[in-house]
Amino acid sequence: MIFKQLFDQKSSTYTYLIASSKGREALIIDPVLENVKDYIILLKKLDLRLVKVIDTHIHADHVTGASKLKDITKCSTIMGDHTPADAVEIKVKDDEYINLENLKIKAMYTPGHTSDSYSFLMDNYLFSGDTLLINGTGRTDFQNGDSKDAYNSIFNKLLKLPDETFLYPAHDYKGEKVSTIGKEKKQNPRLQVSSVDEYVELMNNLNLKKPTEIDFNVAKNINLGA
Question: Which residue, among 92, 27, 8, has the nearest Cα to 16 in the 3D structure?
């Protein structure tokens, strides 16, 4: 299997490129518009044909490269079926599988950070979007975010996965690249709560600044960055 984790310095976004082997079909998760040329170069280098692009949710801190990648490669665009983005070609449901030759990726509806947030599970690789981060969790104070939903998504879905499941988030701000479900259960400070009410209280008092270009980015991303 080919697995590449790519990083955008400006937004601290992780983008993932997946394929079964060289010369085969490829899929990209959470592309960043400014990096599309780099993705195309990498695809050519590995002799891959991009067929699918997934966005885990409507991002607020960067513009997706989904539309531009579709224009260049004729790939299909995919999001969860709760997305407000009408431009998405394929809207997957909770527990639905996305096929990429001999690879299968399971869609998991994990709202809370936003109302349209999905995570994606491929074997023991979890692409958690902004729902579950390394030593953190996605904020819940904009884009129809909801701390109770986030608690349910994290504790009753993602943390039910095997401890050895690799965690690959959409962002990291401290240079961390990968974790595991087991490690997050033990070490993630946001997860050391005893109830949903305690989690809601924690999230309601983060006092985080909103992304500087949130209105522009969300408006663009509803049209897949076009």
Answer: 27
Distance, in Å, from the CA atom of 35 to the CA atom of 77, rounded to the nearest integer, reads: 17
CA 175 vs CA 12, 16, 36, 61, 188: distances in Å: 9, 16, 22, 18, 16
Give me the domains of the chain, ranges plus CATH numbers.
2-208 (3.60.15.10)
C-alpha dihedral sign at 109, 111, 117, 122: negative
Question: Could you list the mean pLDDT of each consecutive 10-residue stretch along the chain, which spans 226 residues?
Answer: 96 97 96 98 97 97 97 98 96 97 96 98 98 98 95 98 98 96 98 97 92 93 94
pLDDT at 219: 96
What pTM was computed for the model? 0.96
Terminal CA-CA length for the chain: 31
Angle at 78 between CA 75 and CA 79, to 5 degrees: 160
